[in-house]
Specification:
heterodimer; A: 621 residues; two-stranded antiparallel sheet; 18 helices; 59% helix; globular; B: 267 residues; alpha+beta; Four Helix Bundle (Hemerythrin (Met), subunit A); SH3 type barrels; 2 domains; 5 strands; 57% helix; 13% strand
Chain lengths: 621, 267
């Protein structure tokens, strides 16, 4: 207790007694339920979020594989899984083949699951929960029990979404965007499940966002000034604000659509709406455009919720492995704030095709071009950070380096979509799919892989296997590109999204000599993409095995295997309840990797004065 | 390490955790109701000319409810002030008033909802409309089988548009009387529930969501007034903070009503 606690024992068993006498009452061993299910410890909640989110990512990936099969081989029974599908889903998968309705359900749920149950919980909730309090020197989140409630609401939302596959009529089929009136007129209760699930997920993210912001504002350790925050914390801070303010309008829209579906109101149903040739009973007078405005008011900021935490992860790993400070830390901070603010005024660039008017389109086109400036500054700073560094190549760094060009491709291909004139042609084609998947799949998900390999030693005290990590990276890198690059070509040739037959009915291969149809070469790509996607799936097997195997059998490492400066690496591993045996006193910026006077040539952000003595200049106490 | 600043302000931010938390939560709530108010604006601006209802709600009841909430805002503030000067009895009295005012508000609101649910508009086969409150349905009344009669207390109009603006002199002067209608004559019969038109839809949604907030706030305040007030003996400062934080929520809910009242009742 009296010693300066910078040298921790290399590895501590979780839950082992750790000597701080003022906490004697917390030393009794908690049972399984309180320790793993109803835990209010931010680290346990982070891991809960991580495991759940990874499971949903895998599930969403399988939905995608089934859809790719259907696109490449329309109406053919799915090999191996076909009979199982028919057994579980009934007539929607008659004969083991994917019907158009089922394809629509898979499409809607793939998007929903990947965004709201996969990437956001992993990038924001899992990494944010585990890492942010450690990085700022906090004992926990400000509201631990609300944090627990946040995970439970999330889990419940996931269950509701998952269950909706098995109700009569199947899951929601109106796309992850759930445009009205389509979402109200499809005869399935799946949409109601989707809406209830979304309300739960929004509740979860609200509780999480309040917690993150309050934690970062209130629980920074003494000396952790705003400009000493690791950039990852800044990214999470801005993300939390986006979630806090952008999600509620979607909740409002969800309530309105639920009223439309359940109570027969007409918020989004226009007068005289005819379904299947029959004018409906609804009173009419509603506005389909209203749904799109409310949806995309969340929908676009959501894109930055997906990308900012990923950029934060990459920034930490790049600084750590180039052994030098991030290039342009202040520019990064101001840029992420600018992105956060501007993300609220670009939403209608998803709606150029709705006929909302040229003037409005021009405004949103301008803001869309403006928001690309801070985004490019962030990417440029990360790229320039590599300049002159003595770069260490390891699995996290490989994934972080892979992120940079992949996100670059995703971002730059978005510019033509942001310009109304070009978008009129490209809208709703596979070009759009390729664009945003480059941002999210080889972009964000690569960064998340990087984060998992990077912080795994903090959670377990062991490293993941380096060789299989590299196999995982190179295979994922190659096959990701083989999956998504051809879609640019398909989209430019005019292949439209959401066609359950993969475009067969529009293809020249089917109607020889027809004008403006999809040529056979473009249709053939569907088969190639299917095989690339299967290979991408196989490439994840080393990762999954590595993840579980390394918990028990990975190489044992000390508390700070990456020789990092930030506070998260200066606690015992894994961190005990309360995180820091002594209150850390932050004395310098986050990336002092060029500090010759210090052991290892890097200067940790904080000092740990022995208890009772206090630091020479504590900022406050 | 324990979580700091749960009761006392952090010196450099000047706020304690829960107060910051509730302000962030309220920012989110502003966006939630902001989304709904935007929906209101778009629906109203997009309504067919002459088809947006006016004067459908009872301004007198709305005014009473506005005053009730305004008064409850004052008692909430006084309850917190009583805690601050450590007068527990006064706190009990003022927050007791808050709870009673809130319950009265909900009672009046339920009455208004009930009034809408028994208010019917019936389209007759001859093209006219009967509009009024349900008095009686005959025992054998069945729309599908076309048997029996229904009695409304209201009036007959030739055009639905006449029902839209009840502030007009013609509508004010209309004589309400009982009409007995044969089921066989009825083309469509619908009450003034959320499904009636986009006005009733947004009215029920927004005031309903607001009423849920009132209910939630009342439950929290009731808990703090009753069983939760035991904390007064052990940690009065933390308890006072709880009163302050729940009070902030209550003031926000009042504020939403201050916007709802003119938007729904007065225009």
């Amino acid at each position: 207790m009296q010693a300066n606690v910078q040298q921790f024992p290399p590895f501590r068993e979780p839950g082992a007694a750790h000597g701080h006498d003022d906490h004697g009452h917390e030393h009794h061993e908690p049972g399984f339920w309180t320790k793993y299910i109803f835990s209010s410890d931010h680290k346990v909640i982070g891991i809960q979020y991580g495991i759940t989110a990874l499971t949903f990512l895998l599930f969403g990936f399988f939905l995608m594989l089934l859809m790719r099969w259907q696109i490449a081989h329309p109406t053919q029974p799915v090999p191996f899984l076909g009979p199982l599908l028919e057994k579980m889903l009934g007539p929607m998968a008659a004969g083991g083949a994917i019907s158009a309705d089922l394809y629509n359900a898979f499409g809607a749920m793939h998007g929903t699951i990947m965004v709201f149950l996969g990437v956001v919980p992993l990038a924001f909730a899992a990494f944010g929960n585990y890492v942010v309090p450690l990085m700022i020197g906090a004992p926990d989140m400000t509201f631990p029990r609300i944090n627990m409630a946040s995970y439970h609401a999330f889990f419940l939302g996931g269950v509701v979404m998952f269950v909706s596959f098995f109700i009569p009529g199947g899951a929601a089929q109106a796309g992850w965007t759930s445009y009205s009136p389509l979402a109200t007129t499809i005869p399935t209760n799946g949409q109601a499940f989707w809406l209830v699930g979304m309300v739960l997920l929004i509740t979860s993210s609200l509780l999480g966002a309040v917690n993150f912001i309050a934690t970062i504002i209130q629980l920074r350790a003494p000396g952790m000034t705003w400009m000493r925050l690791p950039w990852f914390v800044w990214a999470q801070f801005v993300t939390a604000f986006i979630l806090l303010l952008a999600f509620p309008p979607l909740e409002a829209a969800g309530v309105l659509q639920l009223m439309d579906n359940a109570l027969g109101t007409s918020f989004f149903l226009p007068t005289g709406l005819a379904v299947a040739g029959k004018v409906g009973e609804a009173s009419g007078g509603g506005s389909p455009l209203l749904w799109q405005h409310l949806f995309w008011f969340l929908g676009h900021p959501e894109v930055y919720v997906l990308i900012l935490p990923a950029m934060g992860v990459v920034a930490e790993i790049v600084a750590n492995n180039t052994r030098k400070p991030l290039w342009g830390y202040k520019s990064l901070v101001y840029s992420v704030l600018a992105v956060g603010f501007l993300s609220f005024i670009v939403w209608a660039h998803h709606m150029y095709m709705t006929g909302m008017g040229q003037r409005i389109a021009t405004f949103f086109q301008a803001t869309t071009m403006i928001i690309s400036i801070p985004s490019v500054i962030i990417l440029t700073c990360l790229l320039l950070s590599l300049w002159g560094g003595s770069i260490r190549i390891n699995t996290p760094m490989l994934f972080a380096l892979g992120f940079l060009p992949m996100f670059g491709i995703g971002g730059l291909t978005g510019l033509p979509l942001g310009l109304a004139a070009a978008d009129l042609y490209l809208h709703d084609t596979y070009y759009v799919i390729a664009h945003f998947h480059y941002v999210v799949a080889p972009g964000t998900i690569f960064a998340l892989f990087a984060g998992i390999y990077f912080w795994f030693p903090k959670m377990t005290g062991r490293k993941m296997n380096e060789f299989w990590g590299r196999v995982h990276f190179w295979c994922s890198f190659v096959f990701m590109n083989l999956v998504f690059m051809p879609m640019f070509a398909q989209g430019i040739k005019g292949m439209i999204r959401r066609m359950s037959d993969g475009g067969v009915n529009y293809s020249a291969a089917r109607v020889p000599g027809a004008i403006d149809t999809l040529p056979g070469s473009i249709m053939e790509l569907n088969t190639w993409i299917l095989w690339a996607a299967i290979a991408l799936g196989i490439a994840q097997i080393p990762f999954i095995i590595n993840l579980f195997w390394s918990i028990k059998h990975g190489e044992k490492v000390g508390t700070n295997p990456w020789q990092a400066t930030t506070l998260d690496w200066h606690t015992p591993t894994p961190p005990p309840h309360g995180n820091f045996p002594q209150e850390p006193h932050v004395v310098r910026g986050p990336y002092e990797y060029n500090a010759p006077g210090f052991e290892g040539g890097f200067a940790p952000q904080a000092e740990f004065p022995a208890a009772g003595q206090g630091h020479a200049q504590p900022a406050h106490h | 390490m324990d979580i700091p600043y749960t009761v006392h302000n952090r010196p450099d931010t000047g706020i304690y955790n829960a107060k910051l938390g509730i302000w962030l939560f309220l920012a989110s709530e502003v966006m939630l109701f902001g989304g709904l108010f935007s929906a209101y604006v778009l629906l109203r601006a997009g309504a067919e000319p002459g088809m947006w209802p006016h004067g459908w709600l009872d301004v007198r009841l709305g005014t009473i409810n506005t005053l009730l909430l305004a008064l409850s805002a004052i008692t909430t503030l006084l309850a917190w002030a009583a805690c601050k000067v450590r007068e527990f009895g006064k706190f009990k009295f003022f927050h007791g008033c808050t709870i009673l005012l809130a319950l009265t508000f909900l009672g009046i609101k339920s009455y208004e909802y009930h009034d809408k649910f028994i208010h019917y508009e019936i389209a007759l086969n001859d093209g006219t409309f009967v509009d009024g409150h349900l008095k009686e349905k005959s025992a054998d009344f069945d729309l599908k089988k076309k048997t029996g009669t229904v009695t409304l207390h209201g009036r007959v109009v030739q055009d639905r548009k006449e029902l839209m603006d009840l502030r007009m002199p013609a509508a004010q002067a209309a004589v309400l009387e009982e009409h007995v209608i044969q089921a066989a004559d009825i083309k469509k019969m619908q009450n003034y529930g959320p499904w009636h038109n986009t006005f009733t839809a947004i009215y029920f949604t927004m005031t309903g969501l607001h009423a849920l907030h009132i209910l939630g706030g009342t439950l929290v305040i009731f808990y703090l007034w009753g069983p939760g007030s035991r904390m007064w003996k052990t940690d009065p400062e933390r308890f006072t903070n709880r009163i302050e934080v729940s009070g902030l929520f209550w003031h926000f809910v009042d504020l939403v009503w201050i916007f709802l009242f003119p938007v729904m009742y007065l225009t």
